[in-house]
Design brief:
CATH topology of the largest domain: Tetrahydropterin Synthase, Chain A
Radius of gyration: 41 Å
Strand order of the largest sheet: 3-2-5
Number of domains: 3
Shape: elongated
Number of helices: 8
Distance between the termini: 153 Å
Largest sheet: 3 strands, antiparallel
CATH class of the largest domain: Alpha Beta
Structural class: alpha+beta
CATH architecture of the largest domain: 2-Layer Sandwich
Helix content: 40-55%
Length: 246
């Protein structure tokens, strides 16, 4: 009697130990005696203990850092660049069976593609076209890993470190460009001001009494301060009158 009870208890434990919970964001591969025999979808699933093995695969988008590395650009400038790979598993069967460690494998392909793409570009292109570089790397990695059941969503260039001497040169160049633009703006302003003064002078010359009126406005703007020194400019017609009087 006791033996039969133990057998029943053992059978119940054995039965309930075969239940597995698969999360909503996962899918699971079933291996029966080492051979792939099917897939399990999210929910409460049952496997035969000791005979079947369940391998879960995360189906969400994952982020993988591409280690920072030194790369020589096409114009022989050494830069340190790192990136981030955004990918997800599209075929769990291929990702588990075809590749031993798909996360490590895709990171190695990312490093190689990063060196190949940046090595064929100039520094100016590298600094201004990060999105295009990321897309070019993504196409290479996505093509190479297509048979692995992986889908590369995007590759983003994160940091670009330049040599210190090059940073100083670029800083001086940027300062010179800013000074150049400031001088151009100032010269354009002086040119416009000179043009306006010339137009005003021509208008005053044509209008009688305009110069005298302008002189009175200037005197009125000086105010009653005693420290001001006033220099009166006689109108041209007054000077001509003095000449005739001689």
């Amino acid at each position: 009697m006791e033996a039969s009870v133990l057998v029943i208890v053992f059978a119940v434990i054995f039965f309930f130990s075969g239940f597995r919970v698969i999360n909503q964001y996962e899918q699971a591969l079933v291996f029966t005696l080492g051979r792939f025999t099917g897939m399990k979808q999210p929910g409460l699933r049952f496997v035969i203990v000791f005979f079947q093995k369940l391998v879960r695969v995360d189906m969400r988008i994952r982020t993988l850092d591409v280690m920072k590395q030194q790369i020589m650009t096409k114009d022989n400038v050494p830069v340190h660049v790192n990136a981030a790979i955004f990918y997800k598993v599209s075929s769990p069967e291929q990702a588990i069976i075809q590749v031993q460690d798909y996360a490590y494998a895709i990171s190695q392909y990312g490093q190689t593609a990063l060196r190949d793409v940046i090595g064929g570009m100039n520094l100016d292109t590298l600094l201004t076209e990060r999105t295009e570089i990321g897309n070019a790397i993504r196409k290479i990695v996505d093509k190479e890993t297509h048979g692995w059941g992986l889908d590369v969503q995007a590759i983003k260039i994160q940091d670009i470190e330049l040599p210190d001497d090059l940073k100083r040169i670029m800083s001086r160049q940027a300062a010179a460009e800013r000074e150049k633009r400031a001088n151009i703006i100032k010269s354009e302003g002086d040119k416009e001001a000179a043009k306006n003064l010339a137009d005003a002078a021509r208008m005053m010359e044509k209008a009688k009494g305009a110069m005298q009126l302008r002189t009175l406005q200037t005197l009125d703007g000086l105010g009653p301060t005693a420290s001001n020194t006033v220099v009166l400019a006689l109108p041209v017609d007054v000077l001509e009158w003095f000449k005739k009087g001689r």
